[in-house]
Each structure stands twice: as C-alpha cells, then as structure tokens.
Amino acid sequence: MYKLLTKSIPELEGSLNLEGISAETKIFRNEYGIPHIVADNNSDLMFALGYATAQDRLWQMDIQRRIGEGKLSEIFGEETIDIDALMLTIGFRRMAENLEKNLSNESRRMLQSYTDGINAYIKNNRNKLQIEFDILQYEPEPWEIKHSLIILRLFAWQMNQGWRSDLISSEIISKIGAGKAADILSGTIYSQEIYFSQQKSIAKDIADISASIEKKSGLSNFSMGNAWVISGEKSANKHPIIANDIHLFYSAPSAWYQTSLHSPDMDVTGLSIPGIPGILIGHNGKTAWGFTNGLIDDCDFYSETLDSLGLNKYLYQNSWNNLTIITEKIKIKNSSPVDYTVYMTNNGPVISAFREARAIYDYRKLNHRLKEMVPPKEKQVSMRWCGFETSDEILGLFLLNKSKSIIEIEEALKAIKSPSMNFVFCDKENIGQKLCGLAPIREKTPLNSVFSGGVTATQWKGFVNYSELPHFVNPLEKIIVSANSKSNSLSNISSFWDNPSRHNRISEQLNSKNNFTIEDFQKLQTDKISTEARILLPVFINVLEKQNSKDFYFSEALTYLKNWDCSIDKSSISATILNTFSYHLLKNILTDDLGDTLLEQYFSLPTAPGTALLKIISENKTAWFDDVNTPGKLETMDEIIIKSMIESIEFLKKSLTTETKNWRWSELHSLTIKHPLSSSRPLEKIFNLGPFGTDGSNTTIALGAFDYRIPFMDILGPVARFTCDMSNPQYSYSVISTGSSGQPFSRFYSDQTKLLLEGKNIILGNSTFEIESSNFKKLIIRPDF
Known about the structure:
Blueprint: H1 2-6, E1 14-18, E2 25-29, E3 35-38, H2 42-69, H3 73-76, H4 81-90, H5 92-101, H6 105-124, H7 131-136, H8 145-158, H9 162-184, H10 202-217, E4 223-230, E5 241-249, E6 257-263, E7 266-272, E8 281-283, E9 288-293, E10 299-305, E11 313-316, E12 319-322, E13 324-332, E14 335-344, H11 356-367, E15 379-385, H12 393-401, H13 406-413, E16 421-426, E17 431-436, E18 450-452, E19 471-473, E20 479-482, H14 501-510, H15 518-524, H16 531-547, H17 552-562, H18 573-603, H19 608-618, H20 637-655, H21 665-668, E21 670-673, H22 683-687, E22 689-693, E23 705-706, E24 714-725, E25 731-736, H23 753-757, E26 762-765, H24 768-772, E27 777-783
Parallel strand pairs: 1-27, 3-6, 10-18
Antiparallel strand pairs: 2-3, 2-27, 4-5, 4-20, 5-24, 6-7, 7-8, 8-9, 9-16, 10-15, 11-12, 13-14, 16-17, 17-19, 21-22, 23-24, 24-25, 25-26
Helix pairs in contact: 2-6, 2-8, 5-8, 9-10, 9-18, 12-13, 16-20, 18-20
C-alpha cells in the first residue's frame, strides 16, 4: 500500500537522459519543492518547465484538458455527460485548434518544447503515475500543443463574469422590471433594453452545470484580486514596490505553480499556471507585474428564433439562415458513445441545447435503442464570447517575461486578447497600469442581459482599440490600485463591479504614509478591516438603539457592534454578528420580490449581493423594504433591520451556542480546500485540506468570500500572493494555497497552506549564481542522442 501511494512522488535529484532536449539543463528544488530551472536556451528551459510541472501536477493538467475537450465521461461515466456536452458546445477544443493554426513562430517553439517536456515525463513514468490515475483506472494520452491552448482558454472562461450574470440578470429584469433591477445589479439599464426569459430557465441550467464543473475541476467563474504598486517616492528603498494576490475558488492542488526560469536571455520568477508555459505574475529583475480580473463585459447571450419544424434554420434580419452543424461524439465509460450535435448561429453556439445529450443517453438506457438528437426549435439561446476570437497570448506572455521597461510591458500586453486583465506593473523607476483584452463595441452600454439575435442593433460593432483602453503611467498620487471596483475610465466597457470596500481600504492605507517597505505590503495583504462595515454600522446601530430592547441577546449584540473596529478577524464576535445579520437582512429585503428560486440564482453571482446591500441601505431605497406579500401595509427599513437582527440572533443561538462569548467568526467561517475526487468517501480524508477557521469576508483585502447560498463557508480567496521590491528584485516573495506538488503523499502537497493563512511568504530567489551554489536538490537532464 505504501508503495502504491508513494510510487508517483518524483525523484528530485540525480540525472536523466531524455529525448527532446539539446543541452544539459538543471532543475533545482528549494525546501518547498519549487523548481528553479537553469538552461542554455529558451527551448530547453520550456522543456524542463514542462517536465517539472508534469512531475508535480500531471493529473491536474490532464483533468483540465479533459474538461476542455469534453472527455470527462470517458473516465467518470454518465455523471459528467452534461459537462462534456456544454464544453463541446462552447467549443474549447475547436478554439484551441484555431489558435494553434495562427501561432507565431516563437509561440509555437515555446509550446512545442513545453509539450515535449510533458511527454518525456509521461513516457518515462508510465508505471509511476499519480494515484488519481489509479483510482480512475486510466492513463494520460500524449500531450499536444492544443492542450495548453485549451487550458489557456479555460483560464479565460474562468474570468468571464458574464457567464452566469447575463442570464440571471435577464430573468431578474423580466420579473421585477428595469427600475428595481438597477438597484441590485451593476451597470446601466435602458428602458429600450431587449431582454428575454425562457419558460424553462436556462439560467438555472447554467448555474447547476457551473457547480458541477467546480466540483470536478476546481474551475469557477469567480475571479477577483488585489494589485497595487507605489513609486519610489513612497518607498523606503526609493524604488517601486508591487503587490498582487489572486482570488479564485479554492481547490487542491492550487491553480498556481511557482517557478523561476533562467537562460542567457531570460531570468524570470513568479507564478505560472500548470499547462501554460511562462510566468503570468512575477518579475525578471528589470520589471515586475501582476493583474486582477479586467472585468470587461466580453460575453453576450442572444435569444434566437429557430424554425418550429426542426429544419435547422434561424431567423436573422427577417430571413431564415441555415444553422452551422458540427457533429461531436461523447465517449462514456462502460457504455457506447453518444453522438451530439452543436448548432451555430452568426453569434455563436446555441448553448441552451446542451441538455439534449443527457436526454439521448437516458432514452437509450431506458428503451435499449438509439435516439437521434432532436434539432432545437423556436426560442433558444446562443452565446458570443471574445474567447472565440483568434489571438496569440503565448507570444504576449513570452514578451512580458523578457520585458526591460514598462514600455515593453505595454507592448507585450497588446497580444493578450482573452481574458481581459487589468495589469499593474513597474520597472526600477516607473509605475503603470494597463487594461488588456478585447472590449466589444455595442450601440449602447448594456446591463448583463439576453438580447435579440435576429436584429443588427444588438450585434457587436468591432472592438475597442488597444490604445483607448484605460492606461496610467506615474500618476501624481504615486500609487496605483486595482481591486475590481468601478472606475470612470472603465464605465463604458463593463458592469461587473465589485463592492468598493477593498479598493477604498488599500487606497486609504497607501495614502496614509510614505517610506513603505515590502513587509508593509505583505501586512496589508492580510488586512481585515471592512470599509463597507464602517459605512453600514452607524446606520444599523442607530436603528437598533431606537428599539430600546430589554432582550439580553439583543443588547449583547448591540454592545458588541458599538465597540467594534470593523476588523473581520476570525476571533471576532462582532464580525459574526454583522455578517449573519447582513445575510438575513439581504434575504428579507429580496425574497418577496425575487422568490426563493430566483434569489438562489442571484446569490450565485460573485459581486452583486454585497454591492446591492450597500446601495440599498446607504441610499435608503425604500421600495425594497416593503413586503409585496402584505398589501395594505408599508414596511420600513427600521422594521426590516430589527426583524433581521432578531432572526440573526436566533440563528447564532441555534447554530453555535447560547453563550455569546463563543460566537467567534471562525466557528462559522471556515475553509476546506477540496480536491475534485473528494466527493467520494473516504477520499476526502486523503485529498482535502482543512477545515481551517479563517479571517476576512467578501469585503476585506484579506478576502474570505462566502457564497450566499451556503453561508458562511470560506470558498473564495487569495489562492496566491506575490510581492516584489524593485530595489532588491532578486528576492521576491510568494505563497500559494496548497503546495508545489499535486500529489497528496508528497511533503510539498500542503506545506504552504498554513503559511498563506498566517500571512507568511516564501523567498523566491532570482540569482542564477545563488541557485547554482545553493544546497537545493538538483536534477540534471541531459540529451539522449
């Protein structure tokens, strides 16, 4: 058993002779198993990166390419048919094949070398594969260039905030009208807005399938982050300092992988994504960069009118056009495959038909005979997404990694079209910010909604020129902050803004003094103050005091809130009271208008609920406090606040204890980092990490976001952190949410989790001399001629 569980843990020392490499290359591993690679040329560098990443994360890479290719059912069976059908409908494999045809020579060389390194590992370790392959009883296929491009587009899809928002927002507008919807949804609503709601909710289908994808892969359309940089005039060492933390759905292993890469013309250190060659967040000694989700509204949904006879036609400009038909095959473990058809309009794939694959399978299983796919009829929903466009992000990444100034960084970012990313960066003298990615030009700035696909008015008119996207260099304030909140310069291209609490707190702290050190930045990354709580607390206290309640628990709760500094600390009782109260308050405000089903869908949106509460309370939107189910009675804000506090107290007494001193935030707010296979017992004991009581909430810099559908579990937060002081860039710092290895019996599987939760960091050296002369473990790869 021990041999079975540990056979895949790689040898980190010694030497190997491998085909595909041209000269001796060294992979050094520090005390956290992080690879530092030294090579004579960039091709060998990428080969070794592919090899090292496969050593640590092969199954993670394999499961993600399977998701993109629609091949999960080959290993999981019928339970993943819907996921495969949706992925084939969106067409990640087709996207990747198109991207591969249009690669630059440099990108193709990098990807080929990286692919060769992965395949060298697979070929030489067939009998020592990770335990996940044994559990699921399959072997990985050879890696191809397109697989890296699939993962690249999956990363873009992960940052696509419109995926759920558009469909859910459309249903909300349809139910409560544009006026009220404007209070709880970001963006601008126009009275002439075209929106659509099917009798059968495609929004619920998308929400359900998204949840399934999260469980099977850790991929989620929740993606936020903090990034900031200061000029040398505000730095103790007189050079810029940069900080970045990326907020994603927690999963094991982490979505990020630390490394440093060294060749005669490349010295780059930081964070990569397994399956993608190069460093996405990091520095090269001359420049440093990080990013947050750019939140460009790069996805639209269209209501398509198809013919009622199933003749594969759709209506556009009063004419019937032929649907483009693509035939796919879903292979299913222990069953014959399902033939599945993807239908395309001029806007994109008809996504509302993806459940048909399951219907075909169920019919065959029940009736023991084949059933062809029923062509979609009448009203359907198609999707257009910037990820469908041709681009070469690998070239942009390569140029970014080699950049020598912020001018070269901005030039590199031109190549990054999907996803949209708001980059913050610096060299040794300058600081800057640039939004990159495709921003569709529309006739008007829409709220997330579903538009008519049959008219030209709703079609994209091209894309915003790169030079016109928001851009800042050396601002007078000497600071740049990016934290997913609305700014005037972005108002015409997006509506997915998060609560401004994080942005406001970062700006407040950076403006509070000069002479910052990198240690100050690392401390700020763990800051737990909620500026939203500072705004809402006086309103709540004022109302609760007027109640003059004699109830012991009511008085205790009020006392805790009045003596609180608004720090969402895991030991805080006040934080527990405020967050549970805010949750009950939001439910009481919204349930009567939206109903339980639509409210649950609304709560699945990553940014809207918290932003809505701040707006409704701070602006006293009285229409929301009146219960539509009590005609003849007009409820007030005070009544709803008091009712919510009483309900919150009863919830805490029942869920925790009747002792208020034990109402610590960590008792409700805990983090379990889950592995895709952990839903089957007893595998959760092998793969999962936690639970850990955690700090933070949806509004703090140290994000500890919870899903309003399953309060108050910590599910979204800083899965990676990075800091760099350009006065001493050879020593940058990083930490990720698990460890460098994806193998649960490796000592590097979870050795960084505690560090991240405690706000600690790992030094990532960038000096080739120091790496070569260190006592790190060393694996030498030589050509096998």
